[in-house]
Amino acid sequence: MDFSPSLLRLYFVMGSQDCAGRDPAWVLEEAIAGGITLFQLREKGSSLTLGETVALGRRLKAICDEHRIPLIVNDRADLAMILGADGVHVGQDDLPADEVRQLIGTRSVLGVSCETPEEALQTRNSGAEYIGTGAMYATSSKPDAGKPVGPAAVEHIRAEMKSCPPIVGIGGITAANATPVIRAGAEGVAVISAIASAENPRRAAGNLRETVETTLSNR
Amino acid sequence: MDFSPSLLRLYFVMGSQDCAGRDPAWVLEEAIAGGITLFQLREKGSSLTLGETVALGRRLKAICDEHRIPLIVNDRADLAMILGADGVHVGQDDLPADEVRQLIGTRSVLGVSCETPEEALQTRNSGAEYIGTGAMYATSSKPDAGKPVGPAAVEHIRAEMKSCPPIVGIGGITAANATPVIRAGAEGVAVISAIASAENPRRAAGNLRETVETTLSNR
């Protein structure tokens, strides 16, 4: 697919473990209605088998297709290929970005989590379409997220890396604290619980999207 | 690759977590010298990142290539493809066998763990080259292995499934208890700790191989 940095405006990351017991398909539908621009399936720490994850992924893929929202799969390139997803997102402890690029080819989107300029520089050979940087703020959705690096990390990576891929901030972001992330140079924000565990995911997504767009138009 | 059931004679399954602190490459070299016929990389519960697992996998693949021992990768088809492995082995909670088959194609080997005839029958669409059945006996290498099903499970699956793929028994097998597994109709035995944690992996493999061959020649 053709990747545009504007797809990072509001990047919704979710698995069944994040939905407060509600149907992930419903949560995704609501999030899309609220204005998310990209979706990542991140099934982690749930009780689903991989077979059940494939079945869930197929349901969510159909929803994404219907609304033309690209689907990225976290960590497992094999699952991404089985689902016919648009791309793969890897962290520093996952399969190396350049290996995943070789595997999925240049027509698929590759995203890489990077906290520091050093990590960002190491993704160069992979030609990652975007970098996810965080945690921006303290978060409970990702127990292994480590200490927040704050919006300054976005500025830092952009300053140190020539022709830096677009950056999306992640970790503890809400409509109330998204503005500094965008001001620091991120193309958008990625969220899990701010949408997935919101009482009204549609409204939560709408508020986040509006905050991002307003901040961008004044940047 | 062309899969022959005789590759199942002595199937060595191993990851760095199984080697009692020794270099997995050394353990594999010794196991090959002792007579293993097939190798599965099963990196599970270790502290290696996936990047480190790729690096380890490359070292072990080079050893397998040198000695013409096929390399199967446990669970992750993406890792198998990155390593250029000969096949993938999946359990009941891993990616569904028929999905993996679609992904890796018919030139790669697909193995599936099945405890019961029902599970074995479900692998039909995948055209699995072999079935792994166990645990034959109590085992400590695989904490999630469940209660032993015993060699009778091999007979049971073969009796219930017409044109059953070749079966390899796994779980708690040593040279001292391998004979009933082969007598029950298995083409061979798969072992982890009997070789990987043996003081002398080469001798352990040699004893196992000899037991399997002797039992087969009298079957």
From TrEMBL, chains A, B:
<dbReference type="GO" id="GO:0009228">
    <property type="term" value="P:thiamine biosynthetic process"/>
</dbReference>
<feature type="binding site">
    <location>
        <position position="172"/>
    </location>
    <ligand>
        <name>2-[(2R,5Z)-2-carboxy-4-methylthiazol-5(2H)-ylidene]ethyl phosphate</name>
    </ligand>
</feature>
<comment type="pathway">
    <text>Cofactor biosynthesis; thiamine diphosphate biosynthesis; thiamine phosphate from 4-amino-2-methyl-5-diphosphomethylpyrimidine and 4-methyl-5-(2-phosphoethyl)-thiazole: step 1/1.</text>
</comment>
<dbReference type="GO" id="GO:0004789">
    <property type="term" value="F:thiamine-phosphate diphosphorylase activity"/>
</dbReference>
<keyword id="KW-0460">Magnesium</keyword>
<dbReference type="InterPro" id="IPR013785">
    <property type="entry name" value="Aldolase_TIM"/>
</dbReference>
<feature type="binding site">
    <location>
        <position position="94"/>
    </location>
    <ligand>
        <name>Mg(2+)</name>
    </ligand>
</feature>
<dbReference type="InterPro" id="IPR036206">
    <property type="entry name" value="ThiamineP_synth_sf"/>
</dbReference>
<protein>
    <recommendedName>
        <fullName>Thiamine-phosphate synthase</fullName>
        <ecNumber>2.5.1.3</ecNumber>
    </recommendedName>
</protein>
<dbReference type="GO" id="GO:0005737">
    <property type="term" value="C:cytoplasm"/>
</dbReference>
<feature type="binding site">
    <location>
        <position position="142"/>
    </location>
    <ligand>
        <name>4-amino-2-methyl-5-(diphosphooxymethyl)pyrimidine</name>
    </ligand>
</feature>
<feature type="binding site">
    <location>
        <begin position="139"/>
        <end position="141"/>
    </location>
    <ligand>
        <name>2-[(2R,5Z)-2-carboxy-4-methylthiazol-5(2H)-ylidene]ethyl phosphate</name>
    </ligand>
</feature>
<keyword id="KW-0479">Metal-binding</keyword>
<feature type="binding site">
    <location>
        <position position="74"/>
    </location>
    <ligand>
        <name>4-amino-2-methyl-5-(diphosphooxymethyl)pyrimidine</name>
    </ligand>
</feature>
<dbReference type="GO" id="GO:0009229">
    <property type="term" value="P:thiamine diphosphate biosynthetic process"/>
</dbReference>
<dbReference type="Pfam" id="PF02581">
    <property type="entry name" value="TMP-TENI"/>
</dbReference>
<feature type="binding site">
    <location>
        <begin position="192"/>
        <end position="193"/>
    </location>
    <ligand>
        <name>2-[(2R,5Z)-2-carboxy-4-methylthiazol-5(2H)-ylidene]ethyl phosphate</name>
    </ligand>
</feature>
<feature type="domain" description="Thiamine phosphate synthase/TenI">
    <location>
        <begin position="10"/>
        <end position="195"/>
    </location>
</feature>
<feature type="binding site">
    <location>
        <position position="113"/>
    </location>
    <ligand>
        <name>4-amino-2-methyl-5-(diphosphooxymethyl)pyrimidine</name>
    </ligand>
</feature>
<feature type="binding site">
    <location>
        <begin position="40"/>
        <end position="44"/>
    </location>
    <ligand>
        <name>4-amino-2-methyl-5-(diphosphooxymethyl)pyrimidine</name>
    </ligand>
</feature>
<dbReference type="InterPro" id="IPR022998">
    <property type="entry name" value="ThiamineP_synth_TenI"/>
</dbReference>
<keyword id="KW-0784">Thiamine biosynthesis</keyword>
<comment type="function">
    <text>Condenses 4-methyl-5-(beta-hydroxyethyl)thiazole monophosphate (THZ-P) and 2-methyl-4-amino-5-hydroxymethyl pyrimidine pyrophosphate (HMP-PP) to form thiamine monophosphate (TMP).</text>
</comment>
<keyword id="KW-0808">Transferase</keyword>
<dbReference type="InterPro" id="IPR034291">
    <property type="entry name" value="TMP_synthase"/>
</dbReference>
<comment type="similarity">
    <text>Belongs to the thiamine-phosphate synthase family.</text>
</comment>
<feature type="binding site">
    <location>
        <position position="75"/>
    </location>
    <ligand>
        <name>Mg(2+)</name>
    </ligand>
</feature>
<dbReference type="GO" id="GO:0000287">
    <property type="term" value="F:magnesium ion binding"/>
</dbReference>
